[in-house]
């Protein structure tokens, strides 16, 4: 199995990726169940490190065990900053007991819930240690921790693995998607740069890794074209603008160039000519895909959700729903502490969730925000979707088939929910329920498409 | 390609003189010197909303007249009263999370805070029930029987006040910023914008930005709006009405009003038996929309602004909830008889727009694999 996956990856990676593998040594324990993968630019890696393919975050760097690497760059909160400065790792075994008051209007100095089970930063975020004699490699450097030990860093930010990742290809500790307003300062999975020409960029999106132009306009392909030939002329070209390639650019990997007309070059991706849409109202738009035969372009699409899940039209676009059309929600939680530890996982305190899901009444919580039941034999076929046994009274993980335990669907290893006040498909009445619009201690609908609030700003619902 | 449903044809449906007379009747400040003359075609005219505020009558600049006991406390002040900074070590559970729990699961049970309700007798709004009751208001023009109990609840909350009301400024900013909030009314069967004994009003959600002047602050008539056929069907409603001396009066109808709030949140107001009273000109419409708003949904909408922003305007959601329950005056619960909705009024402003057909056919799908 491992050998087969390795072969498949080599077949996918093409020359550039193989170049990285030659540097790093492949670790191909996981292959996302999607048709195509994102190419990336090779980088020299420390010994044993590798590039791992993931379901939704593209290629990421991994430690010698194949576990995803994360950094924690400094970011601003309402009343302060959290995260790390370059070359200065701070995540250690300090046991924080009080909040910091970073999030108005509540003051600092309040004793945190469930202190006996509260982990330290280093319990959750394990420093990627380096040998005493380790030498910098490319963008990887070695920094010194307060206790004198050495730690690998990338672009000078200290590297960690997540206690929630146990397999190669998992990214349960964080995400590359945009940080939403007032969300905790997230740990970011890191990876090699996408192999896109300078005129393009790749943006994490709810449905995949979306290709956009350098100024964030979506690009599209057309079914009416032929491989490496554009048929979009006359009226077609009034609404769809060919993405013109400069005189000196060269084809590379998935990216090609055709001569659209004498002396006029057009970019192609995987053999399909690329266009932008004149009528798009917003950056990173998906509107062009509403036109028959036209499609947004992804380096890699996200894996399909579990069988039976549905997509529903809602007030701002599309939302993921269960088989009955009930909108799905994810619960977000991060503590107002120096270490900004997450509180959204069944292994962490449930005090925050119980406050906003049922005013501390577990039964009310489970009625208001029911878990999404999964068949006992359910399998997702990928790492981003999964199942867990949960004790609904405590919200904690339970032994399989334990008395009273429920078997539920999970996304990024956290349960997903429906909302009792949603009464028909497309309702998303529970979106933004909880503290700070559902971004810090609350629920967000599982938006797949947002035609209204993102408008190219960071933190749109589907970005 | 976009197709204009109806276009400007000067003098076709209404003579220019009539247009100007209409404008003068509706608003003495409108259109006299404006270079653009906008008329009707096929008896239709459409407007898009540019301002929307819960009606609060500002009789005295410092509100001493309406709020003699001052304004209400907000989350920050209430927190300090409950948990004074006296050196006591307190837990997050018994303080912050307790307050958040009560916010999202509000209760009519009393708390140790004195709510300062509005003391005045004058209010914007309409007489919704055709009666004149003791607790009704009088309009600034002297009309009795004005039903706007929401004003009684929010009139002494700083967030809703003029000028520095954070809710007011925030909502208007987001109304303008987010296309989600493009609420459009189209008046049809119009023979005259001065007097017409029967017109039809339909509402839609639009998709396009508002057209502004170079400053970005003033909204200009004459822009276009594409009707949101795909995601915005919830905003459709129909009223019958009439135009009297340049003012649109409609019968009541239920309406789901798009109302995206701050920081990317989206929500709607479910308005019951709402009706219009708008002064019309060929370029603008201005006045009130009034009816009932569901108490639970109103407080849900408040909560979606987050405690942090509520604290800027001294808006305590749990306290407001109790006030709304006390003052609710419509839609009794069939079992308990308790009122579930509260009379209310919105001050609104619109500018003229031209509606265009959807630019692309909607591709609906319930299969995951068709998600974009």
Folded structure, characterized:
The complex is a heterodimer of chains A (463) and B (372). Chain A contains 5 helices and 32 strands. By secondary structure, chain A is mainly β. Chain A folds into 3 domains: 1-193, no CATH class; 207-301, no CATH class; 310-450, no CATH class. In chain A, a hairpin with a 2-residue loop joins strand 17 and strand 18 (264-269). Chain B starts with 15 loop residues before the first helix and ends in a 16-residue tail after the last strand. With 372 residues, chain B is of the alpha+beta class. Chain B has an 8-stranded antiparallel β-barrel, surrounded by 4 helices. Chain B has helices spanning 16-26, 75-82, 96-104, 149-154, 166-177, 295-303, 306-312, 317-327, and strands spanning 45-54, 183-188, 196-205, 223-226, 237-244, 247-250, 253-258, 268-280, 284-294, 330-332, 339-356. The chains are: A mainly beta (463), B alpha+beta (372). Chains A and B meet through strand 23, strand 24, helix 4 and strand 30 of A and helix 2, helix 3 and helix 7 of B.
Helix/strand/pairing class of chain B, anyone? alpha+beta
Query: How many domains would you count in the coordinates of chain A?
Result: 3
How are the strands of the largest sheet of chain B arranged? Answer: 1-2-3-5-6-8-9-11
The end-to-end span of chain A amounts to 34 Å
Beta-strand content of chain A: 25-35%
| Number of continuous helical runs of chain A | 5
What kind of sheet is the major sheet of chain B?
Answer: 8 strands, antiparallel, barrel
The level of helicity of chain B is 10-25%
Shape of chain A: globular
* Structural class computed from helices and strand pairing of chain A: mainly beta
* Order of neighbouring strands in the sheet with most strands of chain A: 27-26-28-29-25-31-30
Oligomerization = heterodimer
Count all strands of chain A and give the number: 32
User: Uncertain regions of chain A: pLDDT < 50 for 5+ in a row?
Assistant: 1-27
Helicity level of chain A: 10-25%
What proportion of the residues of chain B form beta strands (DSSP E)? 25-35%
Number of helices of chain B: 8
Largest Cβ-defined interface: A-B, 67 and 59 residues
> How many strands, what sense, and barrel or not for the largest sheet of chain A?
7 strands, antiparallel
Radius of gyration of chain A: 23 Å
